[in-house]
Please model this.
Amino acid sequence: IVPWENYRQFGDLDALASHYPAMQRYVAFLDTRFENGLLMEGPLGDWLSPENGKNDNTLLWGAYYGYNLRILAQAAAELGKAAEARDYGRRFDEFRQAFNDRYVDPATGKMIDQGVRFSFGRGVTVDSTLSGKPVDTQAAYAIPLAFGLISEENKAKVASRLAATIERANVDDGGVTRPPYSLMTGFIGTASISNALSATGREDLAYRMLQQEAYPSWLYPVKNGATTIWERLNSYTHTDGFGGNNSMNSFNHYSFGAVASWMYEHSLGIQRDPAVPGFQHFHLAPTPDPTQRMTFARGHYDSPYGRIESSWTATDTEITYTFVVPAGATATLRLPAPAKARIKESGKAVRKAKGVTSEGWQDGRALFTLGAGAYRFTVPVP
Model:
C-alpha cells in the first residue's frame, strides 16, 4: 500500500519499480495463509475500536488482501507490465466475488461472521457459536466499501447498513451505550469510514461524525485539551485523568487522525487525478457541509508543483470558493451547483473568466478546467 500511495502522491515511477517485487512477494506469502477459503494471517484488527470485539478479523484480513491485489494490478499497469496487470485484475475480480459470497448477506446487506477472533495472548481462536451471525459494526462495512470490494448488487444495502450503524446508538465492548454519530472504529476502520460515506453519497453523516463532541469522537480529545492526535480517544479526560491508560498510552499517535485525509480530499476537495500521479494535473471537488453546521473550510497542500489552496464559505444566499492552482499544473474543478446556475468568477460571468474553460455539468456539479492562477467562484444557494 505505501509504495503505491507514494507513487500516486509524488509520481516517482522508479521508486514504485524498486518496491514492486517486494509487493508481489508479500501477496504471494499471503496466498499461502488461506485455510478453507479464509485468510488466517493476523494480528491485524481494528485496534482500539470501541467495538472491536464484535469484528470477525478474517473479514478485515481478507479486505486488505483484496485491496493489495487491486493495488498490484494498478501498479503493474503503470510499470508497463500488461500481462501481470491483467492477471492481478482477474484475481481481484475473482476474490471480490468470493468475498461477497462469503461475507455479505444479499438479503440484508449485513456482513456474515465466520467465527474467527484474534486476541493478544490467545492468538487466533474459532468460536463456532458465532459462525453465520451478523457482524454489524462500522468497520465491517466501511473497510470493504472503501476498498471497492462490495459488488454492485450489494453496494446499496451495505451502504445502508453502514449508515444505520452511525445514526443509531451503539453498545461498546464494555457494555456502555454510546450516542448516535459516535466514532466506533479503530486504527484501520477510521481510515476508511469517512471515505466510504463519501463514496456512497452520505457526506452528511461524515460531517455529523466529524462534529460529534461526546466520547468516542475526534472532538472529544480536543474538548479535553488535546493539541495532538492521541493513541486513545480517552487518553486523558478532565473527569478521569489518565483513567488507567498509562500502561499503553501515546499523545502523538496518528491513526485516529486519518480523518484529515478525508477533510483534504472531500471537504476541501483536493484530489489526485487517477491518471496523472504527482499533481501535475489534479481535481478540485469541494463538498461543503450539507448539514450547514460548518460554514467555512480552508487549507492547502504543498504538492511537487507548488502550493494548492482551497477554501469555501457558505452563507444563506451563496457559497464562495477560492482556489490556487500552482505554476506548471492544471486542475479539473468539479463545483457543486445546480444545472445552469449563475456561477461567477471574481464577480464576472464565468464564461469571461481568464484561465477557466467550461466543460458542462455532471452528477450535480459544474465542470471546469483551470490553468495556473488564483480563482474566486460564487454559486448562489437554490
Remarks:
- The longest helix spans residues 57-78.
- The chain has a mean pLDDT of 95.
- The longest strand covers residues 306-314.
- The radius of gyration is 22 Å.
